[in-house]
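Q: Structure tokens for this one, please.
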Amino acid sequence: MIRAGSDFWDRAATPGFGRGMCNGLVASAAGHVKWSEPLLRKQKEQVVSSLQDTVAGMDLMVVTHQAGLTVQEMTALRRRARDAGARFKVTKNRLAKRALDGTAFEGVSDLFRGPTAIAVSADPVAAAKVVSDYAATNDKLTIIGGSLAGKRLSPDEIMALAKLPSLDELRGKIVGMLQTPATRIAAVLAAPGAQVARVLNAYATKE
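A: Here is the predicted structure, written as tokens:
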């Protein structure tokens, strides 16, 4: 591990760390090894660029506080998000605010305080479902807000959003309707208007 100011950097996890990076290391008066300022700036730019790539093309962002999630728990949550078509990422608050500047999510920059992590998805429901389902079984994760297509959402609104069907679920329902036998569809269409209305109302009430 190498101390960089007040932060610790893992050599194995630092992009581009190698023989050529040694020129970026300097020794402090106390004997600690530090990153030189240009190299720190480059690392920060890479973090900002990575987060910008993560949120690009996404419609939904859920901002959370994660307090003490283990590596195993974090890995499981990331896998669950990926399987649902979403992404889960721990953020560095100051750099996250820079990354969100000028995006549809800049309106929630003030939420980035404390141990923050985000879930994002192009599907307007997927990230909310993943996070709310996980938070319901693990109190180390708390929803603090979010944004959908530029509109700020409260934790309650995100929880309500999570209860809606995802795009994949909606597609499945549409396919199911299309596979309904033509005779049944014809019978409904041939029925008097009042009966058709009752059928549609029954479906709406059921849903």
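A few notes: The first strand starts at residue 2 and ends at 4. Residues 100 and 106 are 5 Å apart (CA to CA).
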